[in-house]
């Protein structure tokens, strides 16, 4: 393996980390903004929980299916198929103007996030076949995901205080677009 191939593999790992970081952030960043969302859109206290539940139910419900779809249709293809709708739905959440619209829009990132999360680890395993490199890659991947929850809480507070709750969703747009484009460039096509 040439050093260029190894460099490309590590860059691809960083793209996978960024994609999964976006998913982890989305799961935690919302919690800090819930009071602002409730006040702005007029949620009742009980219906406010559905902003989180709509995401978590679709995420948990489609995680295994996302992995199986990756096996059937290709992991890179499914990574892209999860990233695209996740990013578009984040825009829909960011411009939501009613409780019903926000809850419905929150279900779609859960589905996209499940697919991205399910196939990212498979892609990592395919990129790094040597045990030592794989162990390093898994360490980086785990570190990024474990830190994502903390970053989500901090980012949620900063974005909500400085801008508005809409930005906790809109922040996914540049990240999602970058992940999508870099995946096309750096990750090998399915079958390569």
Can you tell me about this structure?
The chain is elongated. It has helices at 3-41, 45-73, 75-94, 99-127, 131-162, 167-170, 172-186. The longest helix has 39 residues, at 3-41. The protein contains 7 helices and no strands. It is mainly α.
Largest beta-sheet details: none
**Shape by Cα distribution:** elongated
For the CA atoms, what is the radius of gyration? Answer: 17 Å
Summed over residues and divided by their number, the pLDDT gives a mean of 90
Q: What is the subunit arrangement here?
A: single chain
Distance between the termini: 15 Å
Number of helices: 7
Share of residues in strands: under 5%
Helix-residue proportion: over 70%
Keywords:
single chain; 192 residues; mainly alpha; 7 helices; elongated
How is this fold's topology laid out?
Elements: H1 3-41, H2 45-73, H3 75-94, H4 99-127, H5 131-162, H6 167-170, H7 172-186
Helix pairs in contact: 1-2, 1-4, 1-5, 1-7, 2-3, 2-4, 3-4, 3-7
Summarize this entry quickly.
The protein is mainly alpha-helical and 192 residues long.
């Amino acid at each position: 393996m040439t050093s260029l191939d190894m460099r490309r593999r590590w860059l691809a790992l960083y793209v996978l980390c960024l994609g999964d970081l976006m998913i982890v952030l989305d799961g935690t960043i919302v919690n800090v903004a819930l009071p602002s969302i409730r006040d702005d859109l007029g949620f009742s206290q009980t219906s406010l929980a559905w902003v989180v539940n709509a995401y978590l139910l679709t995420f948990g419900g489609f995680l295994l299916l996302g992995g199986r779809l990756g096996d059937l249709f290709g992991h890179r293809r499914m990574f892209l198929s999860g990233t695209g709708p996740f990013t578009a739905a984040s825009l829909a959440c960011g411009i939501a103007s009613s409780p019903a619209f926000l809850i419905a829009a929150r279900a779609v990132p859960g589905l996209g996030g499940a697919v991205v999360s399910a196939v990212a680890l498979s892609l990592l395993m395919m990129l790094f076949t040597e045990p030592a490199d794989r162990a390093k890659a898994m360490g980086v991947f785990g570190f990024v995901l474990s830190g994502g929850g903390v970053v989500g809480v901090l980012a949620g507070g900063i974005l909500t205080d400085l801008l508005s709750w809409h930005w906790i969703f809109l922040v996914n747009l540049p990240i999602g677009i970058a992940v999508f484009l870099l995946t096309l460039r750096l990750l090998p096509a399915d079958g390569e």
